[in-house]
Design a protein that fits this description.
Beta-galactosidase, Chain A, domain 5, mainly beta, 41% strand, ten-stranded antiparallel beta sheet, 33 strands, 15-stranded mixed beta sheet, 2 domains
Length: 517
């Protein structure tokens, strides 16, 4: 009878045979020739990576085979998370490179394999799994020779101390990635691309297939990652240059190669969870003050207007479009940094990052699109925001976008006047569906009582009726509070717009809100 170790080794080694056979069968193809030019032992070049991406886009998309070893696929999430590279075995450990890498095996829900290559001295080096490099916790160890695909990687650096032991960057799962600034915990996730979100034909999910990670120089403070993305409709080549710090900055260069005309594509998408907050506590019975990774969507549009749109957990799917040309920035922000706002010593929502997108160059006409999905638990990320170009991305062409991501406590740019710090809603007098709204605008200038003189509340709405509008300065709190009542009458959706003005000029960012039952 074979030993348990031998049986496990046979189960794990099986996928490697299929992989080698498939590669051998395709050796003569142009696609494999292009891949060979960006594989082990070859010098890396931007031209070579682009050539490979072009070749991938010229053939029908072929999803990689699910090669997760049975021993790993059956792990629950807690068990899977126990599998980590030994600190001394991490890539570049002990080299004073400023970063080390933990290469993540497939397992649990992380079933999509990726290839990982490092670039050392300009030369590409393939990375292969070795079981003796890993701690397994309570999970039975894998044989050192087991053939296990990777699912992604984590990058460690000296984010909160003097040694590169702080997790700062993760790429794992489809096209998802996330980063941290100093003192933060993981929250909002970014995606490389979205396709056909909330469309009748269903969303198409793209995924990273290959990574090339450049070895940083001695004592480096930044790291460069190249990635190839692929799905039925499009291939993409990405370059990420990441600089962790008090605000972690990631410069992204994207080249897309569509196989079909992309009618609904999302550039620089990000996703967060929102269960409830003071502006949306419908049917909530919870001791915490709020459960969310982002409080709202901030937009700095091409006309220079600053917009704040609180997000909600709606009863039905909600899609909002903010038409613009050459946006200056947008992002999902966690504005409240007080522990008391959440009162959760485990989740620490007040320490979750805000993510701000700064387009580099002109993006033309399009819209910032916000998607709000109803959820009844805090595990699902139900808020999605991205830029949607107005003109479809044509098949057979190459489309280039660049942008800068700020994983931060607050964006590097902010409106030069009052900004919204609180939105609250509750039942209004009169019963029925009437709602009372309270919106606080904050500014250091509001400490001076004279600053409140001449301010005018400009409140507009579509459908329904508003009344009992009141604006009041509270100098000791440095805020200007606006209250009003909304009677939606027979409407099931009311758009509200509020801005503080003086002599016809905006003195605050623009507060937008969509009320739904």
């Amino acid at each position: 009878m074979p030993s348990r170790r031998a049986l496990l080794a046979s189960l794990l080694a099986a996928p490697a045979a299929f992989t080698l056979t498939r590669r051998a069968d395709a050796q003569a193809s142009p696609l494999q020739a292009a891949l060979a030019a960006v594989s082990d032992g070859q010098p890396i070049s931007r031209e070579g990576l682009l050539a490979y991406a072009r070749e991938v886009s010229r053939v029908p998309h072929q999803p990689p085979r699910n090669e997760v070893p049975r021993a790993l696929a059956q792990l629950n999430l807690d068990q899977y998370r126990q599998i980590r590279m030994k600190p001394e075995q991490r890539i570049w450990a002990g080299e004073n490179r400023g970063f080390t890498l933990d290469l993540l095996p497939t397992g649990n829900v992380f079933t999509q394999p990726v290839t990982i290559r490092t670039v050392d001295g300009g030369i590409i080096r393939d990375k292969r799994f070795a079981g003796d490099q890993y701690h397994f916790g309570q999970v039975p160890p894998l044989p050192a020779e087991a053939a296990v695909p990777y699912s992604g990687f984590r990058a460690f650096t000296a984010l909160n101390g003097d040694t590169p032991t702080d997790e700062a960057l993760v790429f794992q799962g489809a096209s998802l990635f996330r980063a941290l600034a100093k003192g933060q915990v993981f929250g909002i996730m970014a995606r490389a691309l979205t396709l056909n979100v909330a469309e009748a034909q269903g969303e198409e999910y793209s995924a990273f297939r290959h990574f090339w990670i450049e070895r940083p120089g001695p004592g480096a403070t930044s790291i460069v990652v190249h990635a190839l993305l692929d799905s039925d409709s499009v291939t993409g080549l990405y370059r990420f240059s990441v600089r962790p710090g008090d605000s972690t900055v990631c410069d992204v260069e994207v080249t897309l190669f569509p196989r079909v005309d992309l009618q609904h594509v999302g550039i620089a998408p990000m996703t967060a969870n929102f269960l409830f907050a003071p502006n949306d506590r419908t049917n909530v019975d919870d001791v915490r003050g709020g459960v969310h990774e982002a409080k709202g969507l901030q937009i700095w549009n091409g006309n220079g207007e600053w917009i704040w749109r609180p997000v909600t957990n709606p009863e039905t799917l909600q899609v909002s479009a903010f038409v613009d040309q050459n946006p200056r920035g947008f992002g999902l922000l966690q504005r409240d940094r007080r522990f008391e706002a959440f009162n959760d010593i485990d989740a620490r929502f007040e320490r979750r990052p805000s993510v701000w997108i700064e387009p580099l160059g002109e993006w033309g006409q399009g819209q910032v699109q916000l998607v709000e999905i109803p959820v009844n638990d805090e595990m699902n990320r139900n808020i999605l925001a991205y830029w949607r170009p107005r003109t479809p991305l044509a098949r057979g062409a190459e489309h280039f976008f660049t942008y800068r991501m700020h994983w931060c406590w607050s964006p590097p740019e902010r409106a030069p006047f009052a900004f919204v710090t609180s939105t609250r809603t509750g039942r209004a007098q009169g019963g029925g569906r009437r709602r009372r709204f309270l919106v606080d605008f904050s500014s250091e200038e509001f400490a001076d009582p004279a600053r409140g003189s001449g301010l005018r509340v400009n409140l507009t709405h579509q459908r329904g009726r508003v009344g009992a509008i009141d604006g009041r300065l509270v100098p000791e709190l440095r805020l200007y509070r606006v209250t009003f009542d909304l009677d939606p009458e027979t409407s099931n959706q009311v758009e509200l717009r509020l801005v503080l003005e003086r002599d016809g000029q905006a003195q605050s960012e623009t507060w937008l809100y969509r009320w739904t039952p």
